[in-house]
Design brief:
The chain contains nine helices and eight strands. By secondary structure, it is an alpha/beta fold. It has two domains: 93 residues, Dihydropteroate synthase-like (TIM Barrel, Alpha-Beta Barrel); 135 residues, Alpha-Beta Barrel (TIM Barrel), CATH 3.20.20.20. β3, α3 and β4 form a beta-alpha-beta unit. α3 packs parallel to α4 and α8 packs parallel to α9. The longest helix is centred in the first third of the chain and has 18 residues.
Length: 250
């Protein structure tokens, strides 16, 4: 899954407000081997400024329309807003990527069912307190899957994401990656997004996002070896090589 950010405040510094530049980035990522493009118009980094639905739509719709028509791979909309997801689906998006796992807007599941869209449900929470980190993440994701299927989403269309970097400390992120295989008990495809995230910088003496390529590669390999089916990345060309080798070793 290649990342196409249309925000000015992306933590990774890759946000592109010019639709033409964002479209070209998406097309380049598909040429490099992306199987899916994830378009987002609101940053979800810690401390981000919320964006109104109208502004989010102005950012993402031109990009989704062009990529859906030209990229040759499915396009995902990264949003937790029903209005944005509806318009994105009208524009050609085939997947909804909800970083709140249907907890903020459960009607996203009804939309996914009605339009026969794929649905990514991510674990997220306010704060980082857990009594049983992995157990609670699995339980929460199971509830999100149940919300989706009760709304009519076909079970095979639901993808689970443990939410690396969301409501977790850097140490908790490492625990989740080490124990990622336990999520397979959910019986759903697993998506993992570690690309350029701050816990990698923490491990690499404060390296900025642009200098986290090798660290990202290590986490992508670890995720694939532990059962990840989809990895969400900025650097598709490099990570495709990592995935191919890791899959051969799995």
């Amino acid at each position: 899954m290649g990342i196409v950010n249309t925000t000015p405040d992306s933590f990774s510094g890759d946000g592109l407000l010019d639709p033409k530049e964002a479209i070209e980035r998406g097309l380049r990522l598909t040429r490099e081997g992306a199987d899916l493009l994830d378009v987002g118009g609101e940053s979800t980094r810690p401390g981000h400024q919320p964006v109104a639905a109208a502004q989010e739509l102005r950012r993402v719709l031109p990009v989704i329309e062009e990529l859906a028509a030209r990229a040759g791979v499915p396009v995902s909309i990264d949003t937790s807003k029903l209005e944005v997801a509806q318009a994105a689906a009208d524009a050609g998006a085939r997947v909804i990527n909800d970083v709140w796992g249907l907890r903020q807007e459960p009607r996203l599941a009804e939309l996914a069912a009605e339009r026969e869209l794929g649905l990514v449900v991510m674990h997220n929470q306010a704060g980082t307190h857990y009594n049983d980190l992995v157990g609670e993440v699995i339980e929460s994701l199971a509830e999100s899957v149940a919300l989706a299927t009760r709304a009519g989403v076909a079970q095979e269309r639901v993808i689970v994401d443990p939410g690396i970097g969301f409501g977790k400390t850097w140490e908790q992120n490492l625990v989740l990656l080490r124990r990622l295989g336990e999520l397979q008990r959910l019986g759903q495809p697993i998506l993992v997004g570690t690309s350029r995230k701050s816990f990698i910088g923490k491990l690499l003496d404060g390296a900025p996002p642009a200098d986290r390529l090798e660290g990202t590669a290590a986490t992508v390999a670890a995720a694939v070896l532990r059962g990840a089916d989809v990895v969400r990345v900025h650097d598709v060309k490099e990570m495709l090589s990592v995935v191919r080798v890791a899959m051969a070793l799995r």
